[in-house]
Design brief:
Elements: E1 5-8, E2 11-14, H1 27-39, H2 41-50, H3 53-79, H4 83-88, H5 90-113
Antiparallel strand pairs: 1-2
């Protein structure tokens, strides 16, 4: 890795370029970034300076989305939440799906974001 320096007055400053395109990172990637910044500042700084932070956040975001989808699907099957229930009793279906989604998100946050 080659670093270039720029002279500012009497001091040479490194020409570091940090990739931090948070606009393409989803909800879970942004939550992970906030957690790292607040609770694991040394790791956050290290990843930021080495250029690995954006890739890490994108991987965490994708892993969370995939895991959430899997858990929701499994919980729906286990609790008998079907399309038939959606047709016959929409409010009950929404109540159950909200409950499943909230529980699945808690699991994902604990397993992948806040670790």
């Amino acid at each position: 890795m080659e670093i270039t320096y720029t002279k500012c007055g009497d001091v040479y400053l490194p020409g570091l370029i940090i990739e931090d395109d948070v606009s393409t990172i989803g909800k879970y990637g942004r939550m992970r970034k906030g957690y790292l910044k607040e609770h694991r500042s040394a790791l956050y700084s290290s990843m930021l300076l080495s250029g690995k932070l954006f890739r890490h956040l994108a991987e965490i975001d994708q892993a969370c989305e995939d895991r959430l989808e899997l858990i929701v699907r499994q919980m729906k099957a286990q609790e008998g939440v079907t399309e038939e229930l959606k047709v016959t009793d929409q409010l009950e279906w929404v109540r159950r799906m909200n409950s499943i989604r909230n529980r699945a998100e808690e699991i994902v946050l604990h397993e992948l974001v806040y670790c």
